[in-house]
Amino acid sequence: MNGAWVDLRNSLESNIIKMPNSLDDELKRIVQEESSKKNPELAAQHFSLGEEALRAKRFGEARDHFQIALNWDPNDRYYTGLGDALLGLEKTDEAIWVLEEAVRLDPENDQARSRLRKVGSEYHYKRGTSLHKEGRLVEALQEYKKAEEFGMTEIPDQRQL
């Protein structure tokens, strides 16, 4: 066995050990065997499991499945699912980045664009409001401008945020 293969195998094994407990041993075995190559079929299976977990509001499990799907076949649909799971986990910063990646991969992905527009504008508006209350006006203005860049055209009702 050459050194590069040993390094790859060791890297994969160390990543498998870090996988969440929600995945069973058989799944870990499959991931270990298959993670070094692109596998759209297994990615699609994990995407389906992620969607199922998302519908059941098991956001951590959904995140895990979408991340596995992305490891095997990075595409905009999987990034969109991951973004939704991250939003469910209230990880808005990460969700915005992931949804931006989905839109970068497919600018016509209306679901990701719509979600990004709503989440990004609300997120930056809230940050701007918080900074404004703290008297940090320059930073607040920057956040309000970012909210506008995400498509916010009017001040939202605070009760809806």
Class by alpha and beta content:
mainly alpha
Q: Which range does the strand content fall in? A: under 5%
- Per DSSP E runs of 2 or more residues, the count of β-strands stands at 0
CATH superfamily placement of the largest domain: Tetratricopeptide repeat domain
How many separate domains?
A: 2
Largest sheet: none
Q: Please tell me the CATH architecture of the largest domain by its name.
A: Alpha Horseshoe
Which whole number gives the mean pLDDT? 82
- For the record, the CATH class of the largest domain is Mainly Alpha
Rg value: 19 Å
CATH-defined topology of the largest domain: Serine Threonine Protein Phosphatase 5, Tetratricopeptide repeat
Order of helices and strands: HHHHHHHH
Runs in which pLDDT lies below 50 for 5 or more consecutive residues are none
How would you describe the overall organization of this protein?
- By secondary structure, the chain is mainly α.
- Helices cover 74% and strands 0% of the residues.
- The protein has eight helices and no strands.
- It is elongated, with a radius of gyration of 19 Å.
Keywords:
single chain, 161 residues, mainly alpha, Serine Threonine Protein Phosphatase 5, Tetratricopeptide repeat, 8 helices
Write the layout of secondary structure elements.
Elements: H1 3-17, H2 25-34, H3 40-55, H4 59-72, H5 76-88, H6 92-105, H7 110-133, H8 137-149
Summarize the entry for a quick read.
The protein is mostly helical. It has eight helices and no strands. The protein folds into two domains: 1-37; 38-160, Serine Threonine Protein Phosphatase 5, Tetratricopeptide repeat.
